[in-house]
Amino acid sequence: MKEEVLEQKVFDPNPSPYQKYATHVVPDLSYSYDSLAPYISKDTLEFHHQISHQSYVTNINHLIKFMNLENISREEPLETMIIKSSKVERLKPFFNNASHHWNHILFWQCMKPNGGGSIPPELETRLISDFGSVDQFKNAFFQSAITHHGSGWVWLSIKNNKLFITKTNNASNPLIDDMKPILGCDLWEHAFFLDYRNKKQDYVKAFINNLINWEFVASQLN
C-alpha cells in the first residue's frame, strides 16, 4: 500500500516553537474555561485543552518531521490522514496522535454552556426513527459509555444514512470503519476524574443532559 499521510493546512501568524515542523494547532474553544461548570470544572477543561490536547498536536508535528512525512502530498484533510495511517504499522504512532487530535476537535464542539435541552427537529426525527425515541437513544448512549472498559470514546455516527452508537478504545474513532462521527464523548479519565473521581456514570449523565450542543450535532447530519 502506498503510504500517504498529509498535513492539514492551518495558518497561524505567530507559531509557537513546537509548531516549527508542521502546521497542526490546537483550535481555540468557542467558550471560556469556566463556562461549563459545574459539570466540567475550569481546572479540568484547562488541563484537557491546553496540556492533553496540545501534547497530541506537538507529537503530530514532530512525527511529520522525524518520520520523513513532510514531503508527501499536502492536499488531503486530517480525516484521510487518520484512515491511511491506521492501515500502516509503522505509522501507528502518527495515527494515535492524529486520531486523538481529531477526536478532541469534535469533542469541544459537541459541548456548550447551558447545553442539553431541546433537540433540533431534524435530528430529533432521525433519533426517533433509528432508536425508537430520544429517551431510548440517550439510554443506549449512556449504557454504551458506562459499560466501556478502560480508556476510549462513545460515538453517535452516520453510515449509509443511518445513525449508530459505537464505542472505540484508546484513540481510535469510527472514521476507520467508514462512518462519520457527529457526537463524541471522551471516556479517558483525564476528562472527568478531577471532577467526578471514579463516578464515570455521573460524568456521562451530565454530558448528555447538560453539556451536549445539539445544534452542532444536528449541523453534522448533512
What does this entry look like structurally?
The chain has 222 residues and is mainly alpha-helical. The chain folds into two domains: 40-109, Orthogonal Bundle (Helix Hairpins); 121-219, 3-Layer(bab) Sandwich (minor pseudopilin epsh fold). It is built from eight helices and three strands, in the order αααααβββααα. A three-stranded antiparallel beta sheet has the order 2-1-3. α1 (42-66) runs antiparallel to α3 (92-109) and α2 packs antiparallel against α3 (92-109). It is globular and about 50 Å long. Residues 1-22 have low confidence and may be disordered.
Summarize this structure briefly.
The chain has 222 residues and is mainly α. The protein has helices spanning 42-66, 78-85, 92-109, 121-131, 134-146, 193-196, 200-211, 214-219, and strands at 152-159, 162-169, 180-186. The protein has a three-stranded antiparallel beta sheet.
* Strand segment tally: 3
What structural category characterises the helix and strand content? mainly alpha
Integer count of domains:
2
CATH superfamily of the largest domain: Iron/manganese superoxide dismutase, C-terminal domain
Order of SSEs: HHHHHEEEHHH
How much helical structure, as a percent, in the residues?
40-55%
Strand content: 5-15%
Which CATH first-tier class of the largest domain would you pick?
Answer: Alpha Beta
Query: Major β-sheet, in short?
Result: 3 strands, antiparallel
What is the CATH fold-level name of the largest domain? minor pseudopilin epsh fold
Radius of gyration: 18 Å
Which strand order does the major sheet show?
Answer: 2-1-3
Which overall shape is indicated by the principal axes computed on the Cα atoms? globular
Nearest-integer average pLDDT:
88
The CA-CA distance between the termini, in Å, is 31 Å
Instruction: Give me the CATH architecture of the largest domain, please.
Output: 3-Layer(bab) Sandwich
Q: How many helices in DSSP terms?
A: 8
Low-confidence stretches: 1-22
